[in-house]
Amino acid sequence: MSDQHESPIKTPKQLIIVVVLAFLVPITLIVLLSQLFTGGEKGLQDNQEAVLARIKAVGEVTLAQASGPKGDATGEQVFNQVCKTCHEAGLAGAPKFGDKSAWSKVIAQGQGTAVDHALKGIRGMPPKGGNPDLDDVEVERAVVYMANKSGATWKEPPAPAAAPPATVIASASAATPAAAAAPSPAASGGAPDGKKVYETTCMVCHGAGVAGAPKFGDKAQWAPRIKTGLPALYATALGGKGAMPPKGGNAALSDADVKAGVDYMVNAAK
């Protein structure tokens, strides 16, 4: 008496299904594993100095020392911190850095007009490139730096006059940094304004949906991103992703401000 084992595959249709699954299951597993290892939050490889800079105290107290002058950033520094976001790749109609043809129209308008446009904003670009903390002279230096790299011979503005030395007299209660430092908006009860953050920073790319940024209010584009959850969206906005730099290129924003901007855009797309 012999044992006979029947095959579970009895029809050609069942055979085709088994073959298809044999290919799809390994491929699906490979895709999921690749997303697991490549889709993590940024910042894990940051060096120690960068980490310490991010967690540095909000304020410091310096006794009997003159305050530093405002507006001491060079044009190149401002470009790398703010202008680079759009001008390096020529996003949203911004003249591309080093492109003499694109900059020739700006240069023809003259230094005064170009600086005025940079200060007040023009054609989708927010005032001061979205960083209101920049001093006017810093913005002008950045404009001169970019224009001169494309053939202009504009003169860089002089540094602002230094403020007279100020001596700080600390009382006994000012011995602790918490008492002496100026309170942050959150500490003083002020809530971050997501709409303002969007209009001064995020709108540069999200307003028109340039460089792959999901367009403001477009539910179809935002749906898969919203599905990942707010923590993932916060991490992307804070750390940057693809063509978007950390904090949308506005390093002056606090983490709370960035999160408020994300919340504002998410709520507009629900």
What's the topology here?
Elements: H1 12-38, H2 48-54, H3 75-87, H4 100-109, H5 111-120, H6 136-148, H7 177-180, H8 194-206, H9 219-227, H10 230-239, H11 255-268
Helix pairs in contact: 3-6, 5-6, 8-11, 10-11
How would you briefly describe this protein structure?
With 270 residues, this protein is an all-alpha fold. It has eleven helices and no strands.
| Number of DSSP E strands | 0
- H/I helix tally: 11
Largest sheet report: none
Q: Outline, from the CA principal axes?
A: elongated
Arithmetic mean of pLDDT: 76
**Unreliable segments of 5+ consecutive residues:** 40-44, 61-68, 166-189
Measured between the Cα atoms of the first and last residue, the distance is: 69 Å
Helix content: 40-55%
Order of helices and strands: HHHHHHHHHHH
Secondary-structure class:
mainly alpha
Strand content: under 5%
Cα-atom radius of gyration? 27 Å
Overall description:
The chain is built from eleven helices and no strands. The chain is mainly alpha-helical. The N and C termini lie far apart (69 Å). Helix 5 (111-120) crosses helix 6. 48% of the residues lie in helices and 0% in strands. It has helices at 12-38, 48-54, 75-87, 100-109, 111-120, 136-148, 177-180, 194-206, 219-227, 230-239, 255-268.
Task: Please give a handful of descriptors for the protein shown.
270 residues, mainly alpha, 11 helices, 48% helix, 0% strand
